[in-house]
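Suppose you are handed a protein chain with no further information: no name, no annotation, nothing but its sequence. What can you learn? This example shows the usual starting point.
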Amino acid sequence: MTAPDSIQNSDGRLTFLDWTRGLAAVIMLQGHVFHSFTRPGLRSEGPYVLSQFFGGLGPAIFLVLTGITLGFLMDRRQRQELLAFQRLVAALRRAGYLLTLAFLFRLQLWVFAAGQSPWTDLFKVDVLNCMGVTIALLSVMAIFTTADRVRLCAVLGIVIALASPVISSVDWGWMAPGISNYFVPNYNFFAFFPWAAFIAFGVSIGSLLRLSKPAEMNRVMQWMSLAGLGLLVAGQYFSNFPSSIYAKSEFWLNSPWLILMKLGGVLLVMSAAFVWTEYGVKNSWSWVRQLGTTSLLVYWVHIELVYGRWFGSWKETLTTPEVVAFAATLIVAMVLLSVLKTRWSKVYWREWLAPYLYSNSRRVSGD
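A reasonable first move is to predict its three-dimensional structure. Written in structure tokens, the prediction is:
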């Protein structure tokens, strides 16, 4: 089953998902720049607060899209009529790939810090670690059908969200931080609770998209936008209740209502991206979508630039206009890097090197 040409590019990618991922990259870039370079005295003012408020939506978008991609993978393996065990192994391989990237990412940051970063930073639980661990645990979903995954993963996402305050209320002091940081809610880490809920929801959404016929995409996105709006309203309403069923709950850390509100925001962004790519930019080049096609590279490079030693003397010293200028410059630089990466990937190096390899072999053989 394929998407209509208007929402699918020549590589078979859904363009509105790339556009959504690119917007998440923009949100992430500005949020990290404000977080790293804004003067402490300016962090209570409107621009910084708004930057960090919207910046919190970026990771949720990335995690939901990761789940959608996983849902596509599981559906594709099912359509290939692979055995349940083979589908499970394919999902585990994706988890292993992300966990390998997570370690290499931390290793690169530690090496480039050249003694300014403790060795324990190698094991910091970042978003890639969360993705890898969550996919490994969700890999069991590969044994079910795509239709079953729509329901099961939606329920699983709700369970993870609802369980997050409970996990926070337990005393995990007896456990090594290197382990507990992977699943106990923490402001400094991307723990399984509650962030894994977004990946579970993503698998459900991705499975739904794979079940939808091309002619049904408009209707699906309409319902998705309504669901997003409903989640935002419901989350706002219930989060303002004076009482709670939880003995300990922090809204910005582990609140199920915050998770549902962010999910609602993600659904609205995806719906808007669908409308924009379907009826707006169409097949024209989009710098936002361009960022989305190389989001991993953008993430990797910008973290080093923003939090590494490259601009260390500017950390927490810039005014709001200076931070805005820095963020705009970084976004332009990341777009250029993305374009270079795309064009580099399209070069057939084997063909490019063939004349040189052939001439060398002739000289060696004496022909």
